[in-house]
Amino acid sequence: MNKIYKIFFIGIIIALAVFSCKGDKAGQGTSETLTSGKTTILVDNTVQPIVEDVLAVFHSVYDRAHVTQVNMTENELVNALLKDSASVVVLPRLLTEEENTHFKKRKITPQITAFASDAIAFITNKSVKDTVIDLEEVLKILKGNTSDKVQKLVFDNPNSSTVQYLLKEAGVKQVPAQNVYSLKTNEEVIKYVHDIPGAVGIVGVNWLSQPTPSLAGIVSDITVLAVDNVKTDKGEKKYYKPSQSNIATGSYPLIRKLYVLNYSGKDGLGMGFATYIGAFEGQRIILKSGLLPVEIPTREIEVRNEL
Known about the structure:
Elements: H1 3-25, E1 37-44, H2 48-61, E2 65-72, H3 74-82, E3 88-91, H4 97-105, E4 111-125, E5 132-133, H5 135-142, E6 153-155, H6 161-170, E7 180-182, H7 186-195, E8 200-204, H8 206-209, H9 213-219, E9 222-224, E10 226-228, E11 239-240, H10 244-249, E12 255-262, H11 269-278, H12 280-289, E13 292-293
Parallel strand pairs: 1-2, 1-3, 5-10, 6-7, 6-8
Antiparallel strand pairs: 3-12, 4-8, 4-9, 4-12, 4-13, 10-11
């Protein structure tokens, strides 16, 4: 989405907002528009915090917009789309060709908005002396083998996007029965690693860069492991933390694009939110969160010559 289109689209949003306000004064009922009405957006729970933040600002700007955020695992989100019980979702991937067949049959073309990049992070107890981890050692465990360096992996949920991403990296389809454990949420993984040494937790980095108030103290008391990147480093092995700068340069090996996928077939409130999160204000919120926005907002600095 180029800048001219964004400016044009934001102009449309403002015009529709003004028009809708006039309609209300005339005693007309409120229908769903780009900035008003009610809708539900399903969100991958590994990126729950950033969507909550953007929605909070979106609601403060457009007070007649009522977007309900429901957090689910990746498998639950995709199943909801394919069963037509949801039409707008936030996912760290696009649907596959096979999954899209359902919508092609109904002649529905999705409106796709890429808005950020995040990463999958490895965390461990503060008492662990080693602050780095080899990705190959993690993949060994996922392939059902043993590792001298990694004894236990802990995921948030067996149906989560972090599990699916790493299984794909390992080239396997199922989670092995040994040395891999699943809880229910990212919060539980963070608390588990904080309280119990010896495990490597796997979470969306958004939960570390933007922890909830109840988790802030716990997050500051765990170790975020640096990971080697064999995809880019062919000589001396180097290790990288899942920081904003390392996501931007591609130095960190486990990076995902985040999308708003709109399969509603209309330009309603879901599209209004997607436009907002992809435009300047939404991108600025993402930049401050520690994730990498698709377009980094620029800063204009006025230079004055003073005698």
